[in-house]
Amino acid sequence: MISANNITLAYGKRVLFDEVKINFTKGNCYGIIGANGAGKSTFLKILSGDIEPNKGTIDITPGERMAVLNQNQFAFDDHTVVSTVLMGHKEMWKVMHEKDALYAKEDFSEADGIKAGELEEKFGEMGGYTAESDAATLLSELGVKDEVHNLLMKDVAANVKVRVLLAQALFGNPDILLLDEPTNNLDVETISWLENFLADYQNIVLVVSHDRHFLDSVCTHVADVDKNKIKIYTGNYTFWYESSQLAARQASDKNKKAEDKKKDLLEFIARFSANASKSKQATSRKKALDKLVFEDIVASSRKYPGIIFKQDREVGNEILKVDNLSKVIDGKTIFSKVKFDIQKGDKIAFISRDPIALTSFFEIINGKMKADGGTFEWGTTVTTAYLPNDNSEYFAGNTDNLMDWLRQFVPPNTKETVDEDFLRGFLGKMLFSGEEILKKTNVLSGGEKVRCMVSKMMLQNPNVVILDEPTNHLDLESITSFNDGMIAFPGIVLLSSHDHQFMQTVSNRVIELTPKGIIDKLMSFDEYLEDERVKATREEMYS
């Protein structure tokens, strides 16, 4: 068990945690959720000892080992990949070097021999004699190829380093595992492997993630960081979200009787308990939900932005025709033979093993980059709104306040009818209210810039929305609202995202860009990933 006892942390007048008292127990996976800036990552650092609170203590059951996902990709540059993984078990790594140092002594004494024997025994108890093969197996399961295992970390690609550092945290079955955004820069297959790994994990896991599908797959509990406190709720993220929404609706219904409220909540718990049997965390989550009482369900104080896209007109029959597009970057073909037409009702999930291919494709069809071959043509009825992966060009050198920034994107045909109240309404939907609309754009956070971009897009009333990693920098509340907005949007959506749930719930068609052409399937994202014929085709296209 790991316990936080009366943890208080403040930076000047800003209080992050006030007398937080909470326990995390074996066999459970806790998803740490909260708005951006609430202190999720900071709390993990307090648990790991990287940050000292102003007040309070962290207690860990004696003898239990903690592992933390390292975020510094350059910390192990002078070590081999396998050694980096072994270093995740700090005590074993220390013992290994102590005994090796003894054996290297020229004047090896009898006392050294006794000491070496003790260290060998300790090393064996920690699994040291199979450690290298165990580390190699773990690396391979995470998609790190055998030929990379003995390279120095400084000589491997950034996306490989991410996997190595994840293997380091997972290595040796730690009693307490702290993971901050573990799915960042991982592909779909690796995330699926990690979901299965954590679903079977018998120790304590605390994870911060903005990936709702991942949280739903692995978490037995949610730890909500809100108003300087942390409260644990039974169930995964979706259970927490839907139950808090139900509680909020009931709280606003003053005429509903207490017994009716109780009946609704008990039915809700029973339904989710039944659904839990289908999840990866089936046994532990179902047991937890069966013990849940309706008093544990409370309304969330979270605010959700209003992301509602309206189209001025419906698209015609000709929307987008792409013919034999190709792109080469630094001598490498990132996609070729891209040929497809968009039909009415299409909401397309674009995927690729090379994220540069996706961004390049979106930049090309938005006229911001030139293709090396092929053509594309938009229909005359189309009005697009584009959310790029990198929005820096919209804010670089700009010192306007939010109101003036947004005003420059008002469509020409509506400029005469747009007043300050109208613009305030769009900014208000994205949770910019009161004096916040006078904030300068050059001091905005990453999440605030994305919310500004979404305001700009809604202002355009498009019938085609193009989204390149729309969930980057957003908190779970904004992601959920954006997701719901795209489900409800009646127009065309072209989407690329690492958010599994976004891709699954919005799209009805999948197009994969590869160096040898495309795979184009009219099916859901999950169906695409699970289809055996698609899997075989994908391997051929990347071989």
Describe this structure in a few short sentences.
The protein is α/β, with parallel strands linked by helices.
Fold and architecture overview:
Among the domains are: 236-296, no CATH class; 320-542, P-loop containing nucleotide triphosphate hydrolases (Rossmann fold). Helix content is 39%, strand content 21%. The chain is built from 19 helices and 18 strands. The protein has helices at residues 40-48, 81-86, 90-103, 110-125, 131-141, 158-170, 188-199, 212-218, 237-252, 258-276, 282-290, 355-365, 402-407, 420-429, 446-459, 476-488, 500-506, 525-530, 532-542, and strands at 2-11, 14-24, 29-33, 55-60, 66-68, 176-180, 204-208, 221-226, 229-234, 320-329, 332-341, 347-351, 373-378, 384-387, 464-468, 492-496, 509-514, 517-521. The protein has a six-stranded mixed β-sheet with strand order 5-6-7-3-8-9, with helices on both faces. Strand 8 (221-226) and strand 9 (229-234) form a beta hairpin. Helix 3 (90-103) runs antiparallel to helix 4, helix 9 runs antiparallel to helix 10 (258-276) and helix 10 (258-276) packs antiparallel against helix 11 (282-290). The longest helix is centred in the middle third of the chain and has 19 residues, at 258-276. The radius of gyration is 26 Å and the shape is globular. The protein starts with a strand and ends with a helix. The model has no long low-confidence stretch (mean pLDDT 89).
